[in-house]
């Protein structure tokens, strides 16, 4: 079967993954309004193409934190890649290395940060971090990834508590016995009571606040990017606290249901930040024209979560590479059909908000 678009990979994954695994990846919080709106919001945005612009040559390259990547789509941090494919995050790392883009490794990986680096030694990687009640746990992983050559820390700030994902509760979702959160092997006591997503429940620190950004800066020289900002007020605070970037994200609609689609938050955040730090975005990217719309509204780069998992489920490393390649090809075509020869030519004049 020819895989033509990202939806083809989604359908394949839904057919071939177990129900509990599919439900885990697909889940949104509560009624899934925000999860679904992440996708629908793109359909409300129309492009204003310019014509006769000589698009015989096009260039999709861009930079993130000063490093060149082949096109402005990276891999967002998602957990448990070994549920989708036996090589898990090692396959994801090799695919992103081959395509030359950015892979944000999840804390909740089923391969260790060391295994991921060994699998793709030349890959460009950031590490996604949670803050735990036991700060030493967070501290140790920060030092590990810095020593391994990860290039930035992505602090996820929208999970003081885990959102209510109904199907995970119904399915009593648990990692199968042969898999574990590899980065924490031996860190938490065995049989430390009830488990939530592979580690003991109540391990995340709900007291996390802006002062923890300063704490994190005291531990590391790595750039810090905050993931989970949806308002201009918090964007301003992020700039004031000296971070290097923001990922506009609602956690794929898995945390607060009833919040806005990420693409709908982008303009106010970009307008507030005014180029002082880089602004990225995840949530709902399914086509090259979605990427174009996000860049036109001011995102420097976007990140995909679930589609990478679908690629893994289809054919491991090769599947993730295909997903990225399809997005790259679609993005290049959308750019050309809109009259843009390079990422630098993409701006807000391309966007027409429909009257719907």
TrEMBL record:
UniProt cross-references to InterPro entries, sorted A to Z: Aldolase_TIM (IPR013785), Alpha-hydoxy_acid_DH_FMN (IPR012133), FMN-dep_DH (IPR000262), FMN_HAD (IPR037396), FMN_hydac_DH_AS (IPR008259)
Enzyme class, first EC level, given as a word: oxidoreductase
Coiled-coil annotated residue ranges, if any: none
Domain of life: Eukaryota
All copies of domain FMN hydroxy acid dehydrogenase, residue ranges: 1-356
UniProt signal peptide: none
Active site positions: 251 (proton acceptor)
Entry annotated with the keyword ATP-binding: no
Protein name: (S)-2-hydroxy-acid oxidase
């Amino acid at each position: 079967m020819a895989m033509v678009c990202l939806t083809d990979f989604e359908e394949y994954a839904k057919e071939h993954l177990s129900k509990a695994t599919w439900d885990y990846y697909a889940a949104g919080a509560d009624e899934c309004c925000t999860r679904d709106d992440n996708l629908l919001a793109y359909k409300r945005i129309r492009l204003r193409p310019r014509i006769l612009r000589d698009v015989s040559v096009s260039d999709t390259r861009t930079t993130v934190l000063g490093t060149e990547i082949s096109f402005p789509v990276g891999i967002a941090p998602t957990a448990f890649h070994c549920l989708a494919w036996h090589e898990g995050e090692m396959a994801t790392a090799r695919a992103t290395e081959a395509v030359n883009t950015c892979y944000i490794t999840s804390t909740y990986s089923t391969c260790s940060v060391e295994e991921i680096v060994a699998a793709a030694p030349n890959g460009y990687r950031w590490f996604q971090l949670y803050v735990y009640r036991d700060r030493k746990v967070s501290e140790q992983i920060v030092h590990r990834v810095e020593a391994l050559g990860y290039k930035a820390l992505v602090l996820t700030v929208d999970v003081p508590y885990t959102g209510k994902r109904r199907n995970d509760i119904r399915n009593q979702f648990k990692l199968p016995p042969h898999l574990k959160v590899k980065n924490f092997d031996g860190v938490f006591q065995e049989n430390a009571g009830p488990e939530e997503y592979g580690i003991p429940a109540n391990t995340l620190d709900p007291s996390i606040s802006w002062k923890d950004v300063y704490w994190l800066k005291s531990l590391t020289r790595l750039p810090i990017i905050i993931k989970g900002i949806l308002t201009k007020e918090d964007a301003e605070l992020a700039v004031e606290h000296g971070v290097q970037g923001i990922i506009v994200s609602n956690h794929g609609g898995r945390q607060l249901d009833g919040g806005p689609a990420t693409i709908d938050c982008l303009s106010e955040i970009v307008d507030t930040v005014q180029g002082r730090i880089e602004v990225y975005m995840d949530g709902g990217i399914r086509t090259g024209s979605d990427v174009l719309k996000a860049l036109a509204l001011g995102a420097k780069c976007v990140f995909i979560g679930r589609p990478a998992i679908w690629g893994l489920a289809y054919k491991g490393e090769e599947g993730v590479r295909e997903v990225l390649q399809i997005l790259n090809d679609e993005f290049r075509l959308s750019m050309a059909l809109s009259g843009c020869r390079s990422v630098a030519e993409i701006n807000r004049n391309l966007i027409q908000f429909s009257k719907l």
